[in-house]
Design a protein that fits this description.
alpha+beta, two-stranded antiparallel sheet, 3 helices
């Protein structure tokens, strides 16, 4: 059986640096230049076009592998609120309900 091809084989930068850059770009709403600046602050000097190529090459695999860790929270929230009598005093009671409750995450 042939050995799987290593996607990081002929890169100048270590695998950890590439994965960190791709993760930052995919996880946070950053531009390629923002990722480049964050790497420069850590002593890694790379061009924004290189970050672009890393994201194009490794981004789908990182997204596929990290999907199982993605939370199930939805964007729609509803608040249920009422007054109840507790110990003879009226108290305010509320709870937030996520629209994804009861739904499957994937």
């Amino acid at each position: 059986m042939p050995k799987p091809r290593d996607p990081f084989k002929r890169h100048r930068f270590p695998k950890d640096v590439i994965l960190m850059a791709v993760r930052w770009y995919c996880r946070f709403a950053l531009s390629y230049r923002d990722v480049r600046d964050l790497l420069e602050e850590r002593g890694v000097f790379v061009d924004a076009a290189t970050v672009y190529r890393w994201v194009r090459k490794c981004g789908p695999e990182v997204a596929k592998r990290s999907f199982k860790y993605k939370s199930c929270r939805g964007l729609d929230w509803h608040v249920d609120e009422t007054y109840v009598r507790v110990g003879g005093k009226w108290r305010y009671l509320w709870r937030a309900v996520d629209a994804a409750i009861g739904a499957s995450c994937g």
